[in-house]
Amino acid sequence: MSKELANWSPLRRKLHEIIFEAETTEGRVFDIVLLIAILVSVIVVMLETVDSYRLQYGTLFNTLEWFFTVIFAIEYGLRIYCVTKPSKYIFSFFGLVDLLSILPTFISLVLAGTQSLMIIRGLRLLRVFRIFKLAHFLSQGQIIITALKASREKIVVFMIFILILVSIFGSLMYLIEGQSNSGFDSIPRSVYWAVVTLTTVGYGDISPVTSIGQFIASLIMIAGYAILAVPTGIVTGEIIKGAGVKKKLTESCPHCMAEGHDVDAIYCKYCGEQLNQ
Amino acid sequence: MSKELANWSPLRRKLHEIIFEAETTEGRVFDIVLLIAILVSVIVVMLETVDSYRLQYGTLFNTLEWFFTVIFAIEYGLRIYCVTKPSKYIFSFFGLVDLLSILPTFISLVLAGTQSLMIIRGLRLLRVFRIFKLAHFLSQGQIIITALKASREKIVVFMIFILILVSIFGSLMYLIEGQSNSGFDSIPRSVYWAVVTLTTVGYGDISPVTSIGQFIASLIMIAGYAILAVPTGIVTGEIIKGAGVKKKLTESCPHCMAEGHDVDAIYCKYCGEQLNQ
Amino acid sequence: MSKELANWSPLRRKLHEIIFEAETTEGRVFDIVLLIAILVSVIVVMLETVDSYRLQYGTLFNTLEWFFTVIFAIEYGLRIYCVTKPSKYIFSFFGLVDLLSILPTFISLVLAGTQSLMIIRGLRLLRVFRIFKLAHFLSQGQIIITALKASREKIVVFMIFILILVSIFGSLMYLIEGQSNSGFDSIPRSVYWAVVTLTTVGYGDISPVTSIGQFIASLIMIAGYAILAVPTGIVTGEIIKGAGVKKKLTESCPHCMAEGHDVDAIYCKYCGEQLNQ
Amino acid sequence: MSKELANWSPLRRKLHEIIFEAETTEGRVFDIVLLIAILVSVIVVMLETVDSYRLQYGTLFNTLEWFFTVIFAIEYGLRIYCVTKPSKYIFSFFGLVDLLSILPTFISLVLAGTQSLMIIRGLRLLRVFRIFKLAHFLSQGQIIITALKASREKIVVFMIFILILVSIFGSLMYLIEGQSNSGFDSIPRSVYWAVVTLTTVGYGDISPVTSIGQFIASLIMIAGYAILAVPTGIVTGEIIKGAGVKKKLTESCPHCMAEGHDVDAIYCKYCGEQLNQ
Predict the structure, then answer these.
(1) Among A179, B17, B77, D259, who pairs with D252 as Cys (CB 3.0-4.6 Å)?
(2) Helix, strand, or coil (residue C226)
(3) Domain extent for D122
(4) Both A115 and A184 in a single domain?
(5) How many contacts does A have with D, using Cβ atoms within 8 A?
(6) What number is the ipTM of this complex?
């Protein structure tokens, strides 16, 4: 326990433990209850936008909305109260998300149509990963994040290349199809088509109709085949590097200084000397 | 042969051998005949739902349906009769599937429209892998399953991330396109669109029409490019790890009999004894 | 030169060399001219099916068709004449393709509408890989083929699993959407939809319209995400295994018997003894 | 500084440094300003094709177009003036792109409708990678390019195979669907459909309607599943080979200065000298 915490009242200390730590039973219960509340409130916000449900359950949705907003507001207040450095929490990513997830309901009293912004509550679900911390999930997520971080520069280079490519392809198709196809009526729209095609999404809301257009589109798609392989290759490479590195002892043999011993090695595999474990 | 089996009548023992073992000729013939019967019965159930076929071959389909149901009911009875522990079989995955694949026909005598449920027979086709056991197929399937199991935690973390992502993207598009596009008339529908887009399925039943919507959609698709690479990377990494395990010496230590030494090891890493190379 | 060849007339020997070998200048010229002829004849067959082109260039197409057919018939005759074992060639894959690529034109004199079958000529283009033999292309193709062959069993297991999966998913969607959506009017059609969805093709000719249908479809798509990764992982694993094995000397050190030396090593990296190279 | 440069006037030398080098502050500022100018001019060309924007901001767009054209013309002149070998620059890839990006505006004075060709300016954005040179981005891009180059032959073999495959599939579907489906009215169009399907783009502008057509299409899609894995496997394999190169000692041999020893090497593998570990 830090020196600062020791000066706190027992209530504040207990609250800090429940809200910010997931190791104790109370902490875990709090986290799980909070997650369920967030999940239900997100579902309520979503269902409220469906006309048929709003007509039937409008009052219920409204009540639940205020209920969760009050709950989250209290939780927000308690977090500020029992955090070691309030300003650091308030301006952290989760601090801002927590604030933004309660504001829209209050603003909707003055301005109409802002309730949809409450969907920002969805971001609070990212807290789910705090609970998974206990179940080795975080380390798994860590491998993915590490792989994506390590691929960052390659991905950026790749993205710039893709952006230039779809601009060129889009403009080309605008020149070819623009006259006879209402879908390719401007370059930005043709670029949108190129993105839809190259990523193999292929809505079909815009598609080439002339023979030459379909021919060029076929070439773009086949080229996209090889291009699609690039980000997969990058990320796969990083994940294999991150996950597949066989753990080795960092310690070297005290006699022959050889390194690279397996973690379960007791004797040096090169000179037979016992390792210091 | 277990002690219990020895007390059985020869008929019951023979039946057990034919039905539950695939090593004998009779056992393999039984398995193959059963598989063909399941396959034909599944095709019959499927074709029966096509209007034109039902009108023409309705009576044939009905006869075949009862024929297979009776066959499968007898097989189910025999399985219970000649299994070592009937209750264990009845409540196993295949036991329940076997029961559920004969029930709908009988229930359809009382309630109409339940025949379609017979499609659950399709699950019985999973028995096909029992026969493949003989041809190294199972070990191949095992590698895939092991890889998927090892990726399980990473896949779950990834799925949760995807669910939060499509919620945010869907809500964003609802705010942008909701006014001018009947496809984005509620958040759940917009989330459905986000799933269709991010997985690169791209039906085109819902697609953005405003310039800003198409711009955001393009960004989502390009982001989806990198995201699509993640599960591929995870599974590929596990398959490579499972299949490409680092070569080890086949030789065991002459002193402590430990195995798994690196190919360049000179001394046993567990007891320090020199290896015979 | 084999004994049999030695008894042949010089013309027959020369023809054999030109037609079946790609190492001599004449052989390469023959192969390239043949490939161009096949390519042009395939394009002619394709363009002939386009109404506007057939009306305008019908006579030209007809003339070219007979021209190429006669050329290919002569080539077929010469191949039989100068091959060592005619029957082996005639019943080989390429022998049958060669025959089937000239038959339709002759049959069309009697029966109308068989010209389209001439597209089988496209298979003759596979001969292109014979020429590439000279440019290391074949060995590259070999790596792909070896990888696919090594993955064969895994792919078969995977395909059976996919077929069972799309049957179950298709039937499920038939039960859910069948009443309210003309696209899901039979199980075979719903299975077709499941294939279109799971492979992320997503035409959109059939798509769910009910809320529950869209929800289940979303789950199928997200599941398809992980499933899509499996064949990629399998093939990638095999390609890496086939191509990425670092070459090592098979020879061990004469002094310390250490193995695993790089191909350019002159001295043992463990004991400093000179290697026998 | 080369001998030739030394004879130049200080102005020309300074210009050379600013325009062709990115290491000095002026050089970097010049590159960044140039990139922004290119980006804005590309956006102007794109937006000009949108009817609503052209009507409203037509004059502004026209003015900006001439402004950027003059700027780029001056830049082009300066590049020729201060390059060591003008002819080499003029006929290089970037030299031709630089020329082609200013010509259309001047040609549009004589011929209408050539402005769209200015989109070729987009290619100038590839200069962005020059700036990234400073931030290790180029080496990352280099890994991708090296991987793609190493996969070149495999990709070509694969592409030829895909082209033959889509020709066969397209012709087959033309024979099956041609009578009853206006989408498959010629082989080239059916081949276009096969490309759209096999690459999993799936617009849905053409889709099979007959039962047998949908059945064959399903088989093509499932086959496409395994095929899609091939380019991914090829590129991933090369990226892993390129990036995951086995770690080597950074230390060189104290005797022969050879580098590239394995991390577990004790003696130099080239001269047998003991390494300093």
Answers:
(1) D259
(2) helix
(3) 3-132
(4) no
(5) 153
(6) 0.78
